[in-house]
Write a structure and sequence with these properties.
This protein has nine helices and eleven strands. The protein has 276 residues and is α/β, with parallel strands linked by helices.
């Protein structure tokens, strides 16, 4: 089982290049960064984690800039968006940003994607919350088309562009990993166009839903083993980690605190004890 780490990269916490270097040196497989473009003061949408929204949500760096910094400091570490709020990006620009990170890192980009929970935030980007999944589907499919086709074009309800040249291309087509708690709607999208599923630890029990994902894949004529499972925000807890390992989970990603360098690196050391 692979082990990665994630953080909300902000202007008040450890630099992404410094953290990525420390993770690679200690044997981590991947580094993931979260994203929020901004937090509207209206705050109509409750925080899914309960209670007040942590301040670091309001201070996150651009994920692709953060991952580029991490790429320049490492040679083998996987570099993932955890998650990219695809509806809050223009699909053509998003394809170029992601492909550029993949090219500069030598093919190490991991495209974690999601539809988001903050309706106030997405509305500022012109996204109808009721259409967030169907909109995200077309944008992700369009990104993949721009990555893989010499003359890329896409014609949908929300995304439409004629045959175009788009460079750079990724070194390899990055895996697309869908975030979400899991259920028939999410799994329909995962099975159709994703390479993996990435639920958040603690919101629900992901292990209780894996069988449904595998059955839906089988029913759609897809090999269930072609869909990886990554646990987002796994605590650095031996019993929890061992349970996921025993269940055949492909990757767990520890949630590092968005605080000062010393305490982040202490958590990195603690997590490294579970590698191998």
């Amino acid at each position: 089982m692979h082990i990665g780490a994630l953080i909300f990269p902000t202007d008040q916490t450890i630099r992404p290049d410094t953290l990525a270097r420390a993770l690679e040196e200690r044997g981590y497989e991947s580094f993931w960064v979260a994203e929020h473009t901004h937090i509207p003061l209206s705050r109509r949408t409750p925080y899914p984690g309960g209670g007040d929204l942590p301040e670091f949500y309001t201070r996150t760096m651009d994920p692709f800039v953060a991952l580029t910094a991490a790429a320049t400091a490492t040679t083998t570490l996987g570099l993932g968006t955890g998650i990219c709020l695809v509806n809050q990006h223009h699909h053509i620009n998003l394809a170029k940003q992601a492909a550029s990170v993949d090219l500069l890192s030598g093919g190490r980009f991991l495209f974690g994607v999601g539809v988001g929970w903050n309706e106030d935030e997405m509305e500022h980007h012109g996204v109808n919350p009721a259409k967030r999944r169907s909109t995200a589907r077309e944008r992700i499919l369009a990104v993949r088309e721009l990555w893989t086709a010499e003359h890329a074009e896409f014609h949908g309800d929300y995304v439409d562009f004629s045959a175009s040249l788009s460079y750079p291309k990724p070194v390899r087509t990055p895996p697309i990993i869908m975030g979400g708690s899991g259920g028939p709607i999410t799994f329909k999208h995962v099975v159709e166009y994703c390479d993996g599923w990435m639920p958040i630890h603690g919101r629900t029990d992901p292990l209780e839903r894996i069988d449904l994902l595998r059955q839906m894949a089988t029913d759609a004529g897809r090999d269930p083993d072609s869909i990886s499972v990554t646990i987002y925000g796994c605590p650095i807890d031996g019993q929890v980690i061992d349970r996921y390992r025993a269940a055949g989970v492909d990757r767990v990603v520890f949630w590092l605190p968005a605080i000062d360098d010393d305490r982040v690196l202490t958590a990195v050391e603690a997590g490294a004890a579970h590698i191998g």
